[in-house]
Amino acid sequence: MHASLASIFQGTPEGLEAGAILGKCVHCGFCTATCPTYQLLGDELDGPRGRIYLVKQALESGTCTDITRGHLDRCLTCRSCETTCPSGVAYGRLLEIARPVVERLAPRPLRQRLQRWLLRRTLLGLWFAPLLALARAVRWALPQSLARHIPRCRPAGQRAVQTGPRAVLMLEGCVQPAMAPVINAAAGRVLARFGFVVVPVSGAGCCGALDLHLGASDPALQAMRRNIDAWWPHVEDGIEAIVMTASGCGVTVGDYGKLLENDPAYAAKAKRISGLTRDISELLEPLAVEELEREVKLKVAFQSPCTLQHGQKITGKVEDILRRAGLTVVPTRDEHLCCGAAGTYSLLQPVLSRQLLKNKLENLERDQPDVIATANIGCLVHLESASSSAVCHWIELLDPDPPSKPGSALC
After folding, report:
1. Span 151-174, pLDDT tens digits
2. How many C-beta atoms surround the C-beta of residue 52 within 10 A?
3. Is the pTM of this model over 0.85?
4. Which of the four CATH numbers 3.40.50.1860, 2.170.130.10, 3.30.460.10, 1.10.540.10 does domain 292-398 have?
């Protein structure tokens, strides 16, 4: 697919990159078969191929309308199409380039701009934790449409005693410490069992994914630079890895090298950070997780987040770890399809999100598992909002000193 970009995009780093990505697309349509929104809506423009044409048209003409913006908004950025694509089209990256462009060419109505501004300020601000605590206290009085997005809390338990010889960093993230502090606490206890020390880092925060997917590329890049600055002294000290317990963060931090490649002050550092980034499953895979086997045998349905299987291309590792630890992992149908969480998608596209959630839970609960496990905080909260089964992060199932039954709601 040849693109003749408008003069305002010619010669720019983003224009050159977008042109190269468009050039790989042979418009075969294989991607439509695995696109969640195309399957629901049946509209060519709500599938990857149609959206690629819309992006191409905007970049060639330098103009677009709210119709283009609407079809891009309905994209989950699940990147299932990338797994299917025989030509290696980096569709997710194309959307990251296109979204800020479309925001400029087709400005949103005031109501939508305010909604997105509030989402970014609330989820990424210092007041998120106290607001969440307040929301939990009055959850019973809220409309179900809001209450379903407020997760029950579970205590984190005691942090592991750090005595091992292998030092790693762990991204705390933006919403996960308030929503489910047990996840990183459990990860720390598991890692400590195998001789890892999780070095605390102040100054690191949101990975930048939320801003990036909402078209706010400049704040996203600033968040990435902030994290690099916070981590860099430890990188120079020889840290072994930067561990991710949220696959949504993992795929973004893993792309820092690409996202900051045109920043002369951060390009080399960003590439190094991406090279050190590891999903926790990658760190545990070669270890003797059999040591963590419990007496109680649970039947687990694993929901592999899109950011894990399509973004990071990590498939089968978590399931293998759980089986080796003595758990029964049941198969699920359509495991390649998104659950509908997709960052803020469940809030901005509630109708489509709820249908995807319904389909996903039907597949996950088909064999009546004891627990549904996932690898991303957004998916966890989304699944928990409508599941009849307990939901947890899979690392909780390996926790040698769990503060509660994994997936149980205590408050």
Report:
1. 888 788 888 877 778 999 999 888
2. 23
3. yes
4. 3.40.50.1860
